[in-house]
Amino acid sequence: MSRRPHTSGPSYSAILFALFLLPFTCACGIIDLGEDDQKEPKPGETTLLFLGSSYLNAYDVPDRVKGFSKGAGEEVFVRTRLIPGLYLDFFAQDNQTTTMLRERDWDFVVLQGGSQNAAYPAVSEHSTYLALLELHRKATELSPGTKVVYMMPWAFEDGMLWVEGRTETYEDMQLDLREKALKWAEELDLVVAPVGMAFYEVMTSWDPPQHYLHLSDWNHASYLGAYLAAATIYSTLFAQSITDVEYDWQVEQELARSLREVASTTVMDSLSLWRITP
């Protein structure tokens, strides 16, 4: 999921090293991030499987979803397969992923892929569409009744302007991601977790400082971005507002509430658009 670094801020190698260390600072493994100690879900728990990359790995977004669940009084069972640097086409052909899909009838399988290849598939060697097609097929065949959720990516903080000759701004890129997510969701029967549009609301309405929802590599989420992503995913899965859910994590209380409100409004105001059914 990496891309060319900018000349300002920490070196790209330093950023990648820090991102790889993040899971270990919370005593979790990269691939085992956010998993429960128990081997089987308890009766009544909602089962969640997250498949993706460092975009969910950084700041442990699945564990933030668990935090929201606890605050809302919901019981969840979480499994993850998160591998930095890989795209959804890897998971579509990965035997271990298939084994995990076969483990049980998951309530939700959450798929997170890259941003650039999703926004501009014509110039990417990694087909998000074909990966979603195959993962949806496997998930629904191996786990009948599961809902497959595509996490709409957030755009790079500076769009594609870092590439010579490209003119797409952050806003352009995010709207391109929105268009693709809605088109693919309709064609492949996916639920959309509109994380990218929650980011868009903050980025275009709050006048935030540089690297507010993004890290200084301009693409991975900051701790605020990870919190907002988790809030949006949780609101999508349970089709409920979480504005009043008491889970701030490491975010200042009033800011946490404002971010939860953005997530909730983004989801709840457009349930049919995102193909969310309560």
Describe the structure.
This protein is α/β, with parallel strands linked by helices and 278 residues long. The chain has one domain (12-268): SGNH hydrolase (Rossmann fold, 3-Layer(aba) Sandwich), CATH 3.40.50. The chain is built from 11 helices and 5 strands, in the order H-E-H-H-E-H-H-E-H-H-E-H-E-H-H-H. A 5-stranded parallel beta sheet has the order 2-1-3-4-5, sandwiched between helices. Helix 9 (195-205) crosses helix 10 (223-238) and helix 10 (223-238) crosses helix 11 (253-268). The longest helix is centred in the middle third of the chain and has 19 residues, at 170-188. The protein is globular, with a radius of gyration of 17 Å. The two termini are 32 Å apart.
Content of β-strand: 5-15%
Report how far the terminal alpha carbons are from each other: 32 Å
Strand/helix succession: HEHHEHHEHHEHEHHH
Task: Indicate the CATH class.
Answer: Alpha Beta
| Number of separate structural domains | 1
- Taking all Cα atoms into account, the compactness measure Rg is 17 Å
| Helix run count | 11
Number of strands: 5
CATH architecture identity? 3-Layer(aba) Sandwich
Overview features:
single chain; 278 residues; alpha/beta; Rossmann fold; five-stranded parallel sheet; 11 helices; 5 strands; 45% helix; globular; disordered N terminus
